[in-house]
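Weekly modeling sync, notes
Attendees: S.R. (lead), two postdocs, one rotation student

Agenda item 3: backlog of single-chain predictions. S.R. asked that every request posted to the team notebook include the full sequence so nobody has to chase files. The rotation student volunteered to paste the first one in as an example of the format we agreed on. Action items at the bottom.

Example entry:
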Amino acid sequence: MRQIIKHSFIKSLPVMAGYLVLGFGFGIISEKSGYGFIWVLAMSTFIYAGSMQYVTISLLTGGATLISAALTTLMVNARHLFYGITMIEPYKKTGLFKPYLIFGLTDETYSLVCNGETPDNVDFTKYAFFVSLFNQIYWIVGSILGAIIGNLIKINFMGIEFAMTALFITVLVDQWRKTKNHFPSIIGLVTSIICLIIFGKENFLIPSMLIISLVLWLTSELNKKKEVKNNE
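Predicted structure, as returned to the notebook:
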């Protein structure tokens, strides 16, 4: 068990660096908007949705309706529908861990567990659980620190939300360096840029995710057919 915890912690360190900053930013924004420590702790524990938590503050302060909040949440987190599908098989036999693994599947956690494999014969279910748990702890700690410091120190924190973008770039670079197959990354980048130009920054996410998923699925099917022919 110690080996699994140690391995999971080491793998989650890049996420820790990002989540402490991102959570810190969320805590500050929440505090400045009138939502203190308890609200921050509750949202980071029970919502735990990264960018959606930032949006939640805007929805709360703007008096958004339930329907508006639901539609906004769907739009912001639509990407989870696509990469969540790819985790059906890896999470299929995770037993009692499954509910939390599904709940804790953030973008960064997905990048660490998406292949369903772990080196050194480490149990995948426990590895995925501890990676998910560590990542949420980082987020909660960062959020609480942000709420506390935001209440104590009067500083202009404008632009701190850019940390979310910086973390995505860090994860992309890390994945690029660790894998030899850069096709998925290239497809994702090119497709996103094209959809951004065509649909605009407010509407490009879902079309780009649909196209990326379709291209990667077709590529996977072609590779399977090639493997079958090679084995015949």
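Discussion: group reviewed the output briefly. The chain has two domains: 2-177, 180-232.
Action items: rotation student to repeat for the remaining queue; S.R. to check formatting next week.
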